[in-house]
Structures are given as C-alpha cells and as structure tokens.
Amino acid sequence: MSRDFREVDRETLFFLPPSVQDWLPEDHLTRFVVEVVDSLDPGRLTSAYGHGGKRGCHPGMLLALSSYGYPTGVFSSRKLEQATWNSVAFRTIVANSHLDHDTIAAFRKRFVEELQNPFAWPGRWAL
User: Fold this and answer.
1) Helix (H, G, I), strand (E, B) or coil at 64
2) What does the alpha-carbon distance between residue 40 and residue 19 come to, in Å, rounded to a whole number?
3) 78-126 residue pLDDT tens
4) Which of left, alpha, beta for 57 (phi over 0: left; psi -120 to 50: alpha)?
5) pLDDT tens sequence across 35-55
6) Distance of alpha carbon 110 from the chain centroid
7) How much is the pTM?
8) How many CB atoms lie within 10 A of CB 93?
9) In terms of DSSP H, where are the helices of the chain?
C-alpha cells in the first residue's frame, strides 16, 4: 500500500516578503508583551542615549525582548541572541533583526534598576 504525502519544498521563495505580524496568532504572549511595552513612555531610557555615533537598537525593543525572555525561561543575553535566530516569537519582537549578546547585556547593565520593575517607580513610566 502506497502513501501519498505532501511535497516538502524548502527551495521555493516567497512571492512577497512575509510580515512578522503574520507569524504568530493574535492571542500570543509576544503580542501582549509588545503592546504593553509600546504603551509605556520610554523617555527615561531614550534620553540616556547620546547623539551621534552608530545608530543603536531602540530601548523599547530591548525592553520587550528582555521582558518576553523571563516568562519563557530565556534569561541570558547569549540565549536571547540565539532566540532571535531560532524562535519565531523572539524574531517577531525584534522585527526579524538579530541583536548581538553584548548589545543586550549592555542594555541590561545600563538600565538594571529600571528593568527590576518598570511599574514600581511613579513618574518613571507614563501609562
């Protein structure tokens, strides 16, 4: 008895580039984390950066990446970097870019106090 299977074709290119918005279901935790972080006023974080030099990663994206890592069990900067390559959820958060673990670690070190609980200090975040 012969079985009929769907063809496995890993070589066909997309006709149009896919949107990261299409990669996850509407009720995925990633969407919730991004929505919450986007609703915060990142002024305290963005004002800590100087002008000039190489364009950096937006602190809101780094905050969302770190915030999503904790409930999913991805804690280290190296594992977060790897997840931006291997996990659709993490790729969605970083808009299909890939961050270096040094960038993630430097962000966490720079804003260690703010990352403890961004909602605990009145006036730091405006909802």
Assistant:
1) helix
2) 24
3) 999 999 999 999 999 999 899 999 999 999 998 888 777 655 544 444 4
4) beta
5) 988 888 777 788 887 777 777
6) 18
7) 0.79
8) 28
9) 29-39, 43-46, 59-72, 77-86, 88-93, 101-110, 112-116
